[in-house]
């Protein structure tokens, strides 16, 4: 099985979007470099950000998101973002009516079921869990191996928290990656396992 990674871009005060679900300048780092991050050429980052981000993206076999993100993006028109093979949507509602049955999206009830399905689909590749409420729930369930943050130099003041509404303490190891890109600080932490 591959790693389960909680990932997202966030403000220095810990938000992944403002109160209106808008990321504002959190993704500016993806647009202000000179190295294309994907085939489209629309995303251009610094060489440091490319060297850190591209290998990570290439390892993702499945991404877990909440229904809120799925609905906000209109399900990316049935095409997973970033070329990911599968998207698992955590939801208590059925998939949208008329949803393309061939689209590589899977609708499951609960984070444990989402992780099981994602691991099955990803095999030995990485399972990415989007930051926010679902990510916080997967962390609280003890299923996250690694936390990756792309910290943008902005203070949003309020909004959607990186770890969602998690209300318990979780220890991380010291960061094993701290890299400065252009308009971003890339951080990676391993999750400290609880002793039983």
TrEMBL record:
Sequence ranges assigned to domain Bacterial bifunctional deaminase-reductase C-terminal in this UniProt record: 112-172
Domain of life: Bacteria
Pfam families: RibD_C
TM ranges: none
Family matches, as InterPro entries: DHFR-like_dom_sf, RibDG_C
Protein name per UniProt: Dihydrofolate reductase family protein
Protein source organism: Rhodococcus sovatensis
């Amino acid at each position: 099985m591959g790693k389960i990674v909680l990932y997202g871009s966030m403000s220095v005060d810990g938000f992944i979007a403002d109160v209106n679900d808008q990321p504002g300048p959190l993704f500016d780092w993806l647009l202000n470099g000179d190295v294309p991050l994907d085939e489209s050429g629309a995303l251009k980052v610094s060489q440091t950000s490319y060297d850190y981000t591209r290998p990570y993206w290439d390892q993702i076999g499945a991404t877990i998101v909440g229904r809120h993100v799925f609905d906000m993006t209109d399900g990316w028109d049935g095409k997973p973002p970033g070329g990911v093979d599968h998207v698992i949507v955590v939801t208590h509602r059925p998939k949208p009516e008329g949803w393309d049955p061939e689209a590589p999206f899977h609708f499951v009830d609960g984070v444990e079921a989402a992780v099981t399905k994602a691991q099955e689909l990803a095999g030995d590749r990485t399972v990415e869990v989007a930051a926010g409420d679902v990510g916080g729930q997967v962390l609280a369930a003890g299923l996250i191996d690694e936390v990756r943050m792309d910290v943008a130099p902005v203070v949003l003041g309020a909004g959607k928290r990186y770890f969602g509404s998690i209300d318990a303490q979780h220890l991380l190891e010291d960061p094993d990656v701290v890299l400065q890109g252009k308009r971003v600080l890339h951080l990676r932490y391993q999750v400290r396992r609880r002793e039983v």
